[in-house]
TrEMBL record, chain A:
Residues 14-109 form the CoA-binding domain. PANTHER family: COA BINDING DOMAIN CONTAINING PROTEIN, PEPTIDYL-LYSINE N-ACETYLTRANSFERASE PATZ. It comes from Desulforapulum autotrophicum (strain ATCC 43914 / DSM 3382 / VKM B-1955 / HRM2) (Desulfobacterium autotrophicum). GO terms for molecular function: acetate-CoA ligase (ADP-forming) activity. InterPro entries: CoA-bd, Ligase_CoA_dom, NAD(P)-bd_dom_sf, Succ_CoA_lig_flav_dom, Succinyl-CoA_synth-like. This is CoA-binding domain-containing protein. SMART domains: CoA_binding.
TrEMBL record, chain B:
Keywords: ATP-binding, Ligase, Nucleotide-binding. Its EC number is 6.2.1.3. The keyword Oxidoreductase does not apply. GO terms for molecular function: ATP binding; long-chain fatty acid-CoA ligase activity; metal ion binding. It holds the Pfam family ATP-grasp_5. This is Acetyl-CoA synthetase. Residues 21-58 form the ATP-grasp domain. The lineage of its organism: Bacteria, Pseudomonadati, Thermodesulfobacteriota, Desulfobacteria, Desulfobacterales. It comes from the Bacteria.
Length: 487, 225
């Protein structure tokens, strides 16, 4: 179950070590362990690091120790990136010293079968003997951005974020940071869980459930080993924070044909659909959706219903957004008479005040970011706003220059306006407690408006379809949460 | 349960339809009124008492796919039809049977299937699906892991693609949702109480125009496979 506080989690020291005994780094630059230690140093981890190496006396500026027993203290964590044959004896030595947590990156265990299976059971036996909790083997490691800890073999390039992830593939821990940084999001904590010989996805999920830096949990799943524990743990977490899972395939074991219809229909996929729904877990159908959903779920206040108002200044994107909303079970209500009345002074005669609200143009530029969204979200039928963003800094600059602002002033002035606009939307979001989701065909690096919005907590996705699906995920979360709390 | 124990001792792979329904009934799942008879005369007398129309089916533990074996006769409306049906089933059967089931005929356009299967990771899983053509073509079925509460059972029905058919549908009453949920929870209870049962299949469970729900055919498969 979820620990009462994060410090009480049995795996807390794995993600929050104050000191690390590091096995497998050396002055050989080609060794994977050396790369991992390099990544730890690069992110600026402030804890103590004790490399253990039979020959090298100093590694990357750290004093190295010949044997585990030479260490000056009992470190919180053993990090093992050694050749397979010496892993078991190393864990044994760690256990003897009193180390109770480990990350075992080394591969060559259950996943290779044969002798590997034997080695893995020796590993779990040693862990049991000493009460060691360990992540892996055959994993990529752990990231805790709030501790500046990136113990993987690739640099972490996104910022500190609120997405806590447990993944049965190391790639989604190590290789997602460019994808996340494109939307201005990042991991809080990431666990690559490998073979799950000791710590499994349920343990990680429980930890993330209690983690104060984690607003939403992302799971990459190929199979769930502790079925009932998964369901119970997820059901305990979901009333407090959303869980999104991307599940692929599944074993053929579950696919065996039965005597009866029931068995024949119980392929892994429909069964996992049921398991997720019973667990309160939102299922994403791609890696892109997994992170989109987490992004919007972590950024938005709870949604009350499925009624969305689409605001745009251009017909096509508005229609595309309306269509995508419809396909994803969202409803576009007509504006009430009161809303229409309030809107009248602020919209040009070319505008359409149906939903989508297509403004074509606004009398005052800030109206698009302040007055109009405020009126729209105040509509009693509005549960959320899906809004199209176009403006680039350059576009505002051209307008300013046409108005007579000098070339050397227009750049700064344009940035100033953009900040004002982003602040206005962000302030509205805070005030109304209804989700505002943006979409734009411009990315962060192409538009300072998009960057400013994302940095202020307004999620902006790269297409109307992605925006609508993420809004639908908010509605799914609302429904799942209600089912679990009313049950 | 004694029925299960006896079948296990005899090494049978499954319970007969009649025995399967007795297990379901014991856990509160509504099944057809039916009597196992051993002669043509008895079949007619039973049908008269039960009221027409009736259904005749051969009944045996090893008859797991009855309609394929040509041993089911539906919608019999009088004694002559019952006699003919009885004789023709006996003629077409080449295996030993427990007897012939005389069963009330349940009519309804809406059919569900329900079942239980055991998954290596999740244990007993309960299935609900739309019956008839929907089963084969649309695979409109949903699963939950046992045990679960009534809220979850309700959610299963809601999750079906054709969930609207359980509401008021073409002049027919809303399906009895309480009973549907009870049945799903009962299947979960059977699965947890009886690890010796490996699969259960209720196919179909008919919803009549008044919304009443009845398990019309059932199969309990035994043994840990």
């Amino acid at each position: 179950m979820i620990p009462s506080s994060i410090e009480n989690s049995e795996i807390y020291p794995i993600a929050n070590p104050g000191s690390i005994a590091f096995f497998g780094a050396s002055n050989n630059l080609a060794a994977m362990g050396t790369t991992v230690l390099g990544c730890i140093c690069a992110m600026g981890y402030a804890g103590k690091i004790y490399p253990v190496h039979p020959k090298d006396r100093e590694i990357k500026g750290f004093q190295a120790f010949q044997r585990v027993s030479d260490l000056p203290e009992i470190p919180d964590l053993a990090y093992i990136v050694l050749p397979t044959p010496v892993v078991v004896e190393t864990l044994e030595a760690c256990g003897q010293l009193g180390i109770r947590h480990a990350v075992i990156v080394s591969a060559g265990f259950n996943e290779v079968g044969g002798q590997g299976k034997q080695l893995q059971s020796e590993l779990t036996a040693v862990a049991e003997k000493y009460g060691i909790r360990f992540l892996g083997p055959n994993c990529i490691g752990v990231i805790n951005t709030h501790l500046n800890l990136n113990a993987t073999f690739l640099p972490y390039e996104a910022g500190r974020g609120y997405i806590g992830m447990a993944s049965q593939s190391g790639s989604f821990i190590t290789q997602m940071s460019p994808h996340m940084s494109r939307l201005g999001m990042g991991f809080s904590t990431g666990f690559s869980i490998g073979n799950e010989a000791n710590v499994d996805i349920v343990d990680c999920m429980a930890y993330l459930g209690a983690c104060p830096n984690t607003r939403v949990i992302a799971l990459y799943i190929e199979s769930i080993r502790r079925g009932r524990a998964f369901i119970d743990t997820a059901r305990a977490i979901v009333p407090k924070k959303p869980i999104v899972a991307f599940y692929v395939g599944g074993s053929d074991e579950g696919r065996r044909a039965g005597f009866s219809h029931t068995g024949a229909l119980a392929g892994p996929d429909p069964l996992y659909n049921g398991v997720f729904r019973q667990s309160g877990v939102i299922r994403a159908s791609s890696i892109e959706e997994l992170f989109d959903f987490c992004y919007v779920l972590g950024a938005s206040p709870p949604i009350q219903g499925n009624r969305v108002i689409v605001q745009t200044h251009s017909g096509g994107p508005g229609a595309a957004a309306a269509d995508a909303c419809g396909r994803n079970g969202l409803h576009l209500p007509a504006l009430t008479a009161a809303t229409l009345e309030r809107l009248k002074p602020h919209v040009p005669h070319t505008a359409s005040v149906a939903n989508p609200v297509d403004l074509t143009f606004t009398k005052t530029p800030l109206d698009f970011f302040q007055t109009i969204p405020q009126i729209l979200t105040a509509d009693e039928n509005a549960d959320a706003l899906l809004i199209y963003f176009l403006a680039t800094s350059r576009m505002i600059q051209v307008v300013l220059e046409a108005l007579g602002v000098s070339d050397d002033m227009s750049g700064d002035k344009a940035e100033e306006i953009i900040i004002q606009q982003a602040d206005a939307i962000a302030a509205l979001g805070e005030q109304i407690k209804k989700p505002i989701v943006g979409f734009s065909f411009l990315a962060r690096k192409e538009s300072s408006l998009i960057r400013a919005l994302q940095d202020r907590g307004i999620p902006v996705l790269p297409s109307p379809e992605r925006g609508a699906r993420a809004l639908a995920a908010l509605v799914k979360y609302k429904n799942l949460r209600e089912k679990l709390t009313q049950g | 349960m004694e029925i299960i124990q006896t079948a296990l001792e005899e090494g049978l792979p499954a319970l007969s339809e009649h025995q399967s329904k007795k297990v379901l009934e014991a856990f509160g799942i509504p099944t057809t009124r039916e009597t196992l008879v051993h002669g043509c005369k008895e079949a007619v007398v039973t049908a008269e008492t039960m009221g027409y129309p009736v259904v005749l089916k051969a009944c045996a533990a090893h008859l797991m796919h009855k309609s394929e074996k040509n041993c089911v006769r539906l919608n019999l409306t009088g004694p002559d039809q019952v006699r003919d049906a009885y004789d023709s089933i006996m003629d077409s059967i080449d295996v030993e049977i427990d007897g012939i089931l005389v069963q009330e005929a349940i009519h309804g356009q809406r059919e569900l299937i329900m079942g239980m299967t055991r998954d290596p990771q999740f244990g007993a899983c309960i299935m609900l699906g739309m019956g008839g053509i929907a089963t084969e073509i649309f695979k409109d079925s949903v699963f939950r892991v046992a045990p679960f509460d009534r809220g979850e059972a309700t959610d299963m029905a809601r999750e079906l693609k054709a969930a609207a058919m359980l509401g008021r549908f073409r002049g027919q009453a809303r399906a009895d949702m309480d009973t549907i949920c009870n049945c799903l929870m009962a299947l979960a209870a059977i699965a947890l109480d009886h690890p010796e049962i490996s699969e259960i299949d209720i196919n179909p469970l008919i919803i009549d125009p008044q919304g009443k729900v009845t398990a019309v055919d059932a199969l309990v498969v035994l043994g840990n496979r």
